[in-house]
Amino acid sequence: MCDWCEKYGDGYERWYFNPANYARRLYKIRKEETEASGAEANPQAAGGMAFVGRDFLEARERGDTAEVERIKQQIEGAMWLTHFGQVITLEEALKITDIMYPISLITCACRRSMEGLPDDENFTCMGMGAGMYKWERWPDTYRGGVHFLTPDEAKEVLTKLNKRGLVHSIYTFGTPYLAGLCNCDYPDCAAIRTAIDLEIKILWKGHYVAKIDPELCNGCASCVHRCQFRALSFVPNRNKAYIDQLQCFGCGLCATECDQEAITLVERASLPALANVW
Amino acid sequence: MTMGWKYAKPIKEKLMTLEEPGKALPFDADRGLVDEITAQCDIEALVESLKGKDEKVAGEALEAFGKELMKLTIELADGKYIDRTGEMVERVAKQTGVSFPHRFERYVELSILASRPTDRWNIAKATTKELVLQVSSCALNKAMAEAGLALPCKAMCLACFKVAADKTGDKLNMEMSKTLTKDGMCEFTFSLQS
C-alpha cells in the first residue's frame, strides 16, 4: 500500500478510488475584496517543474549530493502537499470516470510548453470535478477551451489515448483533492521528465509492475517504444524484451501493446523487493 | 467529440471557449442572496415559534420552512443572484445530458450557505449516481438544543432538498444515514433511482 492509500484511502482499495478525493463544494460566499493570488492561482502554473530552481540544477552539476538531497526533499515536501501525481493503468482510469463528475477534455500545458503544439492539436489532458465549472477563472490554462464529456465519452478518449501510447496519471490540486487526469509521454510531460531526469518524486509509481513471460514473448519488440520510463529494452541475443522492474512505473502501456499477451501487470505489493519502491 | 484525429478532437460546437477574456466573473455565492434569505428564512424565529408545540405540529412547521427556504433559494439563485458557476452547471448538463449531481447540489449548497452561513459542511461524494452531504455543525440544531427542543429537524432539510430535486427533475432516493446528535454529523445520501 502506498502512503497515499494509507492516508486517504478510507477503506478503498486505492486512494484514487475513494470518491471523497474528487468531491468538493461548488460554492463559498463571495468575498468583498479581491482574493490574493495564491488561493486562486493558475492550477497548472503550480505544476511541472515550477518548484525546481536553478540551485538544484547547479548542485547536481557540481556533484553536491547533500545539497541535492536537501533541495529534493524540500521540493517533494511542498509538492506532495499541493500538486503531485501517480501513474495509473487504463483500467483504473476507466474506473475513475465513474466515481467523479464532471470530466472535461482540455489542452495539455506540458505539451504546449515543450512542443509548442497549437491548441487544436493538443487535447490530451483531462480536468475533473466541481472545479471545472469554474474553468474561466484560469484563462491562460484553459485558453484552448474546454470540452465537457459524458463518462462514456471519457472512456472512449482514454482508450484512444492509451492506444496512441500516452501514460495515464492522476494529479492532486491541494492534496488529496484529485482534479487532473493526464495522458502524456516523455519528454513532453513535466512530471515524467522531473521524475526520470531529475529523480524528484512528483510522479509516484503506480500500484503495478510489468512482468514478461519469456515463453510467450516472440521478440517482436513492439512494446519497447511504448515505455516512457526507460524500463523496457530489447535483448537481441535472447530475442526477448526485458523489463527493469525497479524502473517500471506500472502504467501498463507495454501490456496493452503485446499481441502475445506475454506482458502482465502484477501488484507491486506482491513483490517484496518492490513493495516500497514508489 | 470525434476520435478521427490521432488524439481526441473536440467538436467545434461543443468546445467552450472564453467569451470575454479578462472579464471578472461571479463564481461564488452572492452575499445579497445570503442577506435576503437570512432575513426571510430566520432560523432563530423558526425555533422561537416551535416552543411549546408537539412533535407533529413542529414537524409540519419545519417541513413548511424547508420548502419555503428552497423555493426562495431557487428563485433568487436563478434570477437576481445568478452566478457563473450555476450558468456553467446548466450548460454542461445540457451538453452532456447529465443532470445529477451538480444541478441538484447547487441548490442544496446555496440553501445551506444562505440560511445557515456559519454551518460546517462538506460534499463527501459527487458521482453521476450518488451525492453525499455531511453537516458537522448546524445553526438550526444548535438553536434547538439551546432552546431545549428535541424535535425532528431533519424534516426541514429533507423537505428543502425534495423541492430542489423536483426542480431539477432528478428522481432521487434520499436517506439520512447519520445524525448530528448521535454521530457528530448529519449525513444525507442522495442516490439516483435506477
Descriptive account of the structure:
The complex is a heterodimer of chains A (278) and B (194). Chain A has two domains: 3-20 and 42-50 and 81-204, no CATH class; 208-270, Alpha-Beta Plaits (2-Layer Sandwich). Helices cover 26% and strands 18% of the residues of chain A. Chain A is built from eight helices and eleven strands. Chain A has a seven-stranded mixed sheet with strand order 4-2-3-6-5-1-7. The longest helix of chain A has 18 residues, at 65-82. The radius of gyration of chain A is 19 Å and the shape is globular. The model of chain A is unreliable at 36-41 (pLDDT under 50). Chain B has 194 residues and is an alpha+beta fold. Chain B has one domain (28-192): Muramoyl-pentapeptide Carboxypeptidase, domain 2 (2-Layer Sandwich). Helix content of chain B is 49%, strand content 15%. Chain B is built from eight helices and four strands. In chain B, a hairpin with a 3-residue loop joins strand 1 and strand 2 (130-137). The longest helix of chain B is centred in the middle third of the chain and has 23 residues, at 55-77. The two termini of chain B are 27 Å apart. Classes of the chains: A alpha+beta (278), B alpha+beta (194). Chains A and B meet through strand 4 and helix 6 of A and helix 4, helix 5 and strand 1 of B.
